[in-house]
Design a protein that fits this description.
4 copies of one chain form a homotetramer. Chain A has 430 residues and is an alpha+beta fold. Chain A contains 10 helices and 13 strands. In chain A, strand 5 and strand 6 form a beta hairpin. The interface between A and B is large, with 40 and 40 residues.
Amino acid sequence: MLPAIDGSPAELARRYRSVRAATLALTAPLSEADAQAQSMTDASPAKWHLAHTTWFFETLVLERFEPGFRPHQGAYRMLFNSYYNAIGQPAQRSQRGLITRPGLAEVLAYRRAVDERVQALLGGDPGATALSLLTLGLHHEQQHQELILTDLLHLLSCHPLLPAYRPAPAPAVGGAVPLSWIANEGGLVEIGHGGAGFVFDNEQPRHRQWLAPYALANRLVTQGEWADFVADGGYREPRWWLAAGWDWLRTHRIEHPLYWQRDGAGLWQVFSLRGLQPLQRERPVVQVSLYEADAFAAWSAAQSGLPLRLPTEAEWEHAAAPLAPAGLAEGNLLDDDRLEPQPAADRPGLQQLFGDVWEWTRSAYAPYPGFRPWDGAVGEYNGKFMANQVVLRGGSCATPRSHLRASYRNFFPTDARWQFSGLRLACDAA
Amino acid sequence: MLPAIDGSPAELARRYRSVRAATLALTAPLSEADAQAQSMTDASPAKWHLAHTTWFFETLVLERFEPGFRPHQGAYRMLFNSYYNAIGQPAQRSQRGLITRPGLAEVLAYRRAVDERVQALLGGDPGATALSLLTLGLHHEQQHQELILTDLLHLLSCHPLLPAYRPAPAPAVGGAVPLSWIANEGGLVEIGHGGAGFVFDNEQPRHRQWLAPYALANRLVTQGEWADFVADGGYREPRWWLAAGWDWLRTHRIEHPLYWQRDGAGLWQVFSLRGLQPLQRERPVVQVSLYEADAFAAWSAAQSGLPLRLPTEAEWEHAAAPLAPAGLAEGNLLDDDRLEPQPAADRPGLQQLFGDVWEWTRSAYAPYPGFRPWDGAVGEYNGKFMANQVVLRGGSCATPRSHLRASYRNFFPTDARWQFSGLRLACDAA
Amino acid sequence: MLPAIDGSPAELARRYRSVRAATLALTAPLSEADAQAQSMTDASPAKWHLAHTTWFFETLVLERFEPGFRPHQGAYRMLFNSYYNAIGQPAQRSQRGLITRPGLAEVLAYRRAVDERVQALLGGDPGATALSLLTLGLHHEQQHQELILTDLLHLLSCHPLLPAYRPAPAPAVGGAVPLSWIANEGGLVEIGHGGAGFVFDNEQPRHRQWLAPYALANRLVTQGEWADFVADGGYREPRWWLAAGWDWLRTHRIEHPLYWQRDGAGLWQVFSLRGLQPLQRERPVVQVSLYEADAFAAWSAAQSGLPLRLPTEAEWEHAAAPLAPAGLAEGNLLDDDRLEPQPAADRPGLQQLFGDVWEWTRSAYAPYPGFRPWDGAVGEYNGKFMANQVVLRGGSCATPRSHLRASYRNFFPTDARWQFSGLRLACDAA
Amino acid sequence: MLPAIDGSPAELARRYRSVRAATLALTAPLSEADAQAQSMTDASPAKWHLAHTTWFFETLVLERFEPGFRPHQGAYRMLFNSYYNAIGQPAQRSQRGLITRPGLAEVLAYRRAVDERVQALLGGDPGATALSLLTLGLHHEQQHQELILTDLLHLLSCHPLLPAYRPAPAPAVGGAVPLSWIANEGGLVEIGHGGAGFVFDNEQPRHRQWLAPYALANRLVTQGEWADFVADGGYREPRWWLAAGWDWLRTHRIEHPLYWQRDGAGLWQVFSLRGLQPLQRERPVVQVSLYEADAFAAWSAAQSGLPLRLPTEAEWEHAAAPLAPAGLAEGNLLDDDRLEPQPAADRPGLQQLFGDVWEWTRSAYAPYPGFRPWDGAVGEYNGKFMANQVVLRGGSCATPRSHLRASYRNFFPTDARWQFSGLRLACDAA
């Protein structure tokens, strides 16, 4: 099995230009130094992202389907391999920031050269497999667009001066939206992708699942609610925490979300791609781990007396799918260029399902019944990560609109905090 | 909600005597030194197990329900608390082997004193809550019976001379049983415990789940099959492994199951509670991690061309429940005193479902829909461990028969290897 | 070269009985559990000390010189080897606490058996090499007598209840002795051992060294002075600390000597072999690292305006040698059975040079000019540790009197704190 | 006390221009990416070196002595502080590679601006303290010139393609020079700096020391000799190694000098600033740790039957001082631009004392008798590192000629390997 092809060769050619240009636009404000540095093993330098996404097209498409293929630079095959063991031993992940050569200009030239060759390939008749892998390459590049921003934000947060990626906009407007519950009766439902069009292998096959009645919060958990949790001693009280979360919290001396800090007067400030700003209570909380999200849910349950918890991914998808009928998600996404989650709108129904922040679910990342990885090297894309990771749903303010859908499964380890990860509460229904 | 009561006060009194005596029988062959040493943070000294199980009755039952309660020794409340934050700060888990005082004789006196007081309490009318917690205490002690053996085996494996817990028996008889597949059509099934009688909170509530058709292997994976996997380079080929498993394998230089070693001629030997013995191909493989089990399944799929995998816990329970109609599991269990997994019998149908080895499933340990932890301190028993652990089913040769049932959910991290953990393959049905 | 022989065979036989009995007396109060536990890699279980000192006689003396030698138990050769690579691969140091077999009774039987065989050997004419190694074995055992106490104290300090090795005595009497300075004009002096009688290879050869004029404090630094250092923020001010010491302090969150803690009222209490007691200002401070000792000297220099520092080992020995004319040191030593350092006497001259606490010097542990390790396996005794260790001088309240002399060089890493290590200040003379 | 002033203001101004220009020349071949990356905590990015050396002049000279001083950029005071606690909390050493802003161009502009201001200051009459600190700043910058090269070489060695800093020159000519011994009778000698002119505080005061007769090898140990050591199993035989060295070797799986690797045919290749080249037997071995140097000496002693060892720093200085009579060292130094150690010349007498490689001594880095750190913040320059480091002498092919002298004490930890560190053997004389 291979990825579905997402359009005619001409459409793919247009889409290719657009996606590749969007990546360049994201990295345009960066100096070569900004693009070089790697702030932790989990995060990659922007230059590496630029090169690796290009490597994907060169190695998985051109190498197999371009007549008379010759590598742009033979060494790039190893230098910019992320984790595909089928392609050879990748360079060490923790040392991506040490690949100073090629320089940024050479990487950009690499991009241009591969772009030309891909366009030439699309101008001919490369065949279904090539189009399939090329479609995958575009979605792959869109994933890396989000990672470019999350990794860059982490890098900037390590700089003692906390420089902003973009100047701060006017503060988000809008008052607080009261929390309410949207009930769903569940039953024997179907989730997963079943139709045509590109999806990742891990979204398939569509399959039945029984859901007990449940309710979802109308909106995301806010920074204000989270500040109340902190003020109530939430990070010092073991009873809210999973045992592994409590160990993690004590080992790393975690006391607040990743990019929060107090100013001289003790007031919270939040660092984002827009720089350091005072906490705004109505904005969704972001950059929290699954451990924190789960603890917040446990605390909220005790405060409210309700059986609150995180939703399962099936509950989330079952509720969200009708809101993206043509597969197109509406929300505060990368295309809106806000780069920060925004307060909810005061409207009836489920708000903020798509965009703003990825929503932690209570579902471990696991194969769907009947799951088959794609054939060939791209079989390593998703399946091999199905252990000790948890599913997040709904995209974020750093996710491209055309990359998102209701069946999309993002996944990260339980202690990951540098993504645009937040949460929505769920509740067992009577 | 509290644990169900498992019998009349008189029946509980009898059962109490029997369970407590069984624990003492297990530790009888140990010297004070054997009972003191702690070989790793995950494993506890036998003396600690003896004291902690007693602490459970004293702290959770006597302290609340015995008129005029006075502690046997005040300090034991902290020294022998495992992880109940609601009861106070426990002593450090990694330093249980440093609690040299009280000595073994004092701990045994502690056991006797608490036994007398519990029996006196049961002779009166302690009320439903006390009986409930006392029932839990008995099942808790049975869990620790298994842990006494797994922890002791690990300790003995760290001794350069590999001493045996018990002299080796005559080798198991019986030839190889061919692998075959028992199909199950699935559908909308129910799993979890729904009736009366004691179960853990994590086995509840009984709930519906949709199962696609599937098949289970008729027997466990054997040491011989595993030796073939090793010989085929299974531990050196990344494509069989989950990414986290491959990292784990390389970091810890894992090349075979935990207690395997080669003799001078390169032949496999296996260390068990019966000492070091030549590998017997027909015995079930044991002391493998989830990572290893999953890799073996991937390798087996490639060898056979079938969509092989580990079963889900729902598949396992749905298949197993009919085989333990009155709740009573048959199999090679602790009561049989073999202390090693045994070859399968050559009979039709599913063999070895109960006993021999815990079977790794492909299901993350998660709350069932509508799960509620028990009230009070015992609410910390199960729920707080529901992250980064995987469910195992079916009990082992170290599980007491009266402690096991089809709905029983054991759970360990993906890299845990010192338990009696093995596997049975599953297959997607057409 | 081999160790000097310390007496006639008959004298050695008497001395052997006495030294071996002293070891047993030290461990007599311990249970098998106490004797089994290992609290950190650097510390060994008392049972291991009992066995290893016996192994030394069996392996280095009996195995070579006893006619028809047969090992007491063949496996002990590896189990109780500490670090002699020439004798084979030793068991892992960090896992000495896991050697539960042989048990304590068997180890005591091993001692008795080897004792008989050594006495039999001494009854004959074993030759000079045997007598030489036997002499070394006695001094080796005396070193382990001190280690039995330091390692046991560390173990007891890890027990949440802080049990005492011996009941607390009446508090030490005596008022504060004012600090004064004993000047020494230095010049071209000789240090190191030059005469007959047993010394370690590292005390040789006697050699010349030029000393500038210097002065030594008349007494050790006291707990009261150290409490002033702490109260003045000494552990929070980087300027007093060696860079490596400051890193160490921050990494391990060090705020006071190893066995100090505050009571509920904030008053210092000190844990020792005599249990937990209120700090007594006049007692010497003990269980501090070289980093702490050096920082205290820097702080003292700033307080006093004097060029204070730690002494070099040559300064110390040059000043101390005349005070032990016949080689016999007077002071609060193990034979006095106080087991804690005592306040200084109010007498003129250098006090507390021998006994009480080992005194950190500012001298790295290095070979003396012309140093030659002993021949054979015992060449590994001292020389191979001459890197990243610092010399301490003068013995402690846990050092046997017959084991000490002015030329004795003890050595530990700069961060070691569990020994009876304290300090005396020195001063450059005008 | 303050550093000595190394010339008139006009001479210092000339020297300032020359030293600063030399730094720029070293970094000229680097891209911004090359200058940004940090390959390990011990190594710093070239950009950081460029900025930090400038920071030294700005903070320690301009800030105190420039009338109306205003900082170039206030934040640089913290960003480019290395370890001076007296100046404030420095940025984290391990994260120097994350300081992507200011960029390289801004750092170069910072250099130019400070250069102008320093020259203006020197044009006036800044006073003795300013001239003293300025002199220190120049020597400080020369130290960093060597570090720029050693840190860059380490960075390049982490790149999978092993790029060269400079194209490889023609191989060094010259045959093997036989090893011979130059005897020295020792006696009561003086070492340390006693005259006028700049030296570091740690080279003072000049003081007496007694030396037993000794001999030094006429030349450095070569790569060929080292290859013999490796071929003889030198890295697998514990008896050659210090105990701490053996632990280090096994923990890090050390099997050869840092930048050695085998080609496909098993032949040694050596990576240097000139790229990867076949091992040349006559070149001095370089990039070895003290542990390796000491083990080689022990192995050499066993091979030769002579009491070989590393020299002490006093022996080295006593022998070397006469060879640099006017304080000026001759040898293969940075000014020669060879950037690699060269084979010895076949001449009588001690060769290669200065330049080529720093020579490990057997002397722990310790204060000379009467040592006083400089006053003020620069008191942190040397003294606080006097623990667990060993002295190296003689400079290397990366040391500027005007920076070196016979009394110069370099120092590194016993496991440091990325410096131009090699060795010369010494021998006890009869």
